[in-house]
Amino acid sequence: MISTSMIVGTVMRKIKSRTWKKQRYFRLQEDCMTIWYKSKKTGNTHSTCDDVEAVREGHQSEVLLSIADEFPPDRCFTLVFRGRRGNLDLVADSADEAQSWIKGMRKLIENLENMGDSEKWIGDWFKKADKNNDGRMNFQEVRVLLKMMNVEMNEHHAHRLFMMADKSQTGSLEDDEFVLFYKMLTQREDVLRVFQEYSGDGQKLSLSDLEEFLREEQLEDVDVVQQLAMELIERYEPSDTAKTLKAMSIDGFLIYLMSPVGSVFRPRQQNLYQDMNQPLCHYFISSSHNTYLMEDQLRGPSSVEGYIRALKRGCRCVEVDCWDGTNGEPIVYHGHTFTSKILFKDVVSTLGKYAFKVSEYPVILSMENHCSVEQQRVMAHHLNTILGDKLLKSTLDRKIPISFPSPEELKGKILLKGKKIGGLEDSLSGLMEPEDTLTGEVSDEDEAAEIDEDNLHMYQFHFLSLPQKSKQRLSKELSDCVVYCKSVHFSSFKHSRMHSKFYEISSFTESKARKLLREAGAEFVLHNARQLTRVYPSGLRTDSSNFNPQEMWNTGTQIVALNFQTAGLEMDLNDGLFSQNGGCGYVLKPEYMRRLDKRFDPEVPQNRDGYQPLSFCIQVISAQQLPKVNIKESSVVDPFVRVEIHGVPLDQAKQETRYIDNNGFNPVWYDTLRFTIHAPELALVRFVVEDYDKASRNDFVGQYTLPFSCIQQGYRHIHLLSRDGTSIHPASLFVHLRVTKLV
After folding, report:
1. pTM of the predicted model, to two decimals?
2. Looking at residues 570-595, what average pLDDT do you find?
3. Residue 381 is a catalytic residue
4. In terms of CB atoms within 10 Å, which of 211, 386, 526, 722 comes out highest?
């Protein structure tokens, strides 16, 4: 139930910090989809409800916790937005007022999730175009609508459609007439062409017609085609008459092709489908770098929100940089910089609360420890008391292991990665020295200590001071929290092969990892079949930019740590790889990267056993309802599509279609792009739409990235995502895909 106060409007306090508390007037617009509020800085501000992901009640953000002594929790709530947009923290004048907004917003979110896609889309645009709010649209308003919907149409053609839809002959369209107008507007000649090719009578697909289409074009399993055809008619055919005839109309055919079953991503592989009983080192693990940072590496804010966002995206390895704080409480921030500071215990509490909301599989807490022995003991106390049984404190069977346990065995556990006194064998056999501390070097992944000499002057320019590698005392209490992930210095692959234990993990900067890849790619892969490796961005990436993770996955590196707060190609690839297997944050490496008795060199993939190159052919047919990227009202996109292959060096490639003038609504290409794939198990495919501009840089419109191994062949829709990785429904591409073996 939407409360009256939401529609009439409410004055609430918008909170940005303990000192920034401003009163703002908030109101739900008539469309019941948009929240309006007045801002002195930006003027009138609008947020659509489908941008809101969740409503948190009470003091559930750092900002609201900071004013907890001033405002009670029953008056406070937080609107959490999708993507990387900041939260909105609000304080109502009363508990009842807060509840009316909390319940109302949750109801709106639920309504939007339940609303049919086309109904939401049509209703949204109808209200936007109906300038005088009379529930009708004249032709002038329709012309405005077409421009808003990013389509430049011949006026005669537009008027003809308008007259056909105006059944009441009043010179304006009511809502049901507008739906008819919309359907005529969205008529899909490209889909009709495919439909008629397989239809016996040009009017419908009989059961046998549909079976033939599924078998010949979609390459569905012959044994299940008949059952699948029946299921598709039952699920997607809107006409009861067609259902009775066991047939599919053009409407049902389009609905099927636009559905998840008709999408480019094989539905079975979006669920958990891989063997989760292999040793931990046999998986790629979704990993975040300097997780506490929300922006850049030098001056930006630190926040527990960084951990919440990463964990909600399926991240399974988060990082914490710990330093001595005041009052004996360790703090987390990017040392030697101006980034803000947060309490270590707040990070641990957040981890305890959010670690397993999205995935049950283990979380690795990668710790860079700069604390004194006294504050290390406080850290160990917080880890033990706050996390309790979630913290892994011993091997699973309390025996000396010879290899990693599996993600399945470690479900619900948090593993600490850090320095450890002695080995796992010593602590299990009771051979530890009586002293409670040990002198050792700081964590190898301390970025300042790893900086190369060529870039020393740049590093000193950016950072407050340049730390030196130094001896550091380690507390036994903190050491005992480290079980399967002991941080060690890396000497060489030969040294590791002869002397290292499976539970010893080394961390490399991206440049050191590239050097190792160039010098000994096959050795790197073999090393990662037995031990964990972590690679993280260069300390010179002060803008929180990312390196391309694909080249590190090519070496079998499990923990490729990226700045999750920075959108772009690199995070698209990360999201693409981990979109499979239920989004659980673990992806099983190819079999040839897990074996100790075989060698795989990413530079020469053709030398491996079972090598079979594949031909990948994509016909880019059309796009639908692409969003406008230029704020000028007269602007319409000139779209083109680029298909990129990311994988081993031999597979790296990209090709583009032509650009289409002035049509973001339904551009048609029928352009064919061809690739050869040499290591399909490692390849990712990225579909990108851009707005062509001959005078300046092309504008990004949307993208979609997925593993090559998860592609469904045949006629498929690709539902595009924003730069932030969120849906930009109903924008999509329509393509035909075919994969064949090369002789």
Report:
1. 0.85
2. 97
3. no
4. 526
Assess if residue 36 is contained within a domain.
Answer: yes
CA distance 397 to 191: 58
* Beta-bridge mates of residue 391: 414
DSSP line for 71-110:
S-GGGEEEEEESTTPPPEEEE-SSHHHHHHHHHHHHHHHH
Average pLDDT over the chain reads 88
Which amino acid is residue 30, in one-letter code? E
pLDDT bracket for residue 453 (50, 70, 90)? very low
The residue out of 186, 213, 234 marking a domain boundary is 186
DSSP 528-574: HTTS-EEEE--TT-TT-----THHHHTTT-SEEEE-TTS-SHHHHHH
Q: Which domain holds residue 624?
A: 612-741
Count of domains forming the chain = 5
pLDDT digits (tens, 9 = 90+) for 224-275: 999 999 999 999 988 888 899 999 998 889 989 999 999 999 999 999 999 9
Residue for token digits 């932030």? 724
Query: Burial level of 81, CB count in 10 A (0-12/13-18/19+)?
Result: middle
Distance CA 519, CA 11 (A): 64
Q: pLDDT value at position 544? A: 92
Q: Which two tokens stand for residue 225?
A: 């085609």
- What type of residue sits at position 177? E
Q: Is 193 in the same domain as 138? A: no
Tell me which H or E stretch contains 672. Answer: strand 668-677
Say whether 147 counts as a known binding-site residue: no
Catalytic residue among 59, 282, 334, 719: 334
Mean local confidence (pLDDT), 700-715: 97
Considering 59, 289, 527, 717, which one is annotated as catalytic?
A: 289
697 annotated as a binding-site residue: no
Q: Of the segments 83-97, 359-373, 626-640, which one has the largest average pLDDT value? A: 359-373
289 in active site: yes
Burial of 111 (0-12, 13-18, 19+ CB in 10 A): middle
Is 7 labelled a binding residue?
A: no
367 to 318, 445, 483: CA distances (angstroms)? 9, 9, 13
Which CATH number characterizes residue 676's domain?
Answer: 2.60.40.150
Q: What is the 3-state secondary structure (H, E, C) of 4-40?
A: HHHHHCEEEEEECCCCCEEEEEEEECCCCCEEEEEEC
37 is in an annotated binding site: yes
- State whether 287 and 256 are in the same domain: no
Q: How confident is the model at residue 632 (pLDDT cuts 50, 70, 90)?
A: low
- The band of 142, judged by pLDDT with boundaries at 50, 70 and 90, is confident
Looking at residues 499-527, what average pLDDT do you find?
96
Residues 370, 442: contact at Cβ < 8 Å? yes
In this structure, the answer to whether residues 718 and 734 fall within a common structural domain is: yes
pLDDT tens per residue across span 45-76: 666 666 788 899 999 998 999 999 999 999 99
CATH of the domain at 200: 1.10.238.10
Residue 24 is labelled as binding a ligand: yes
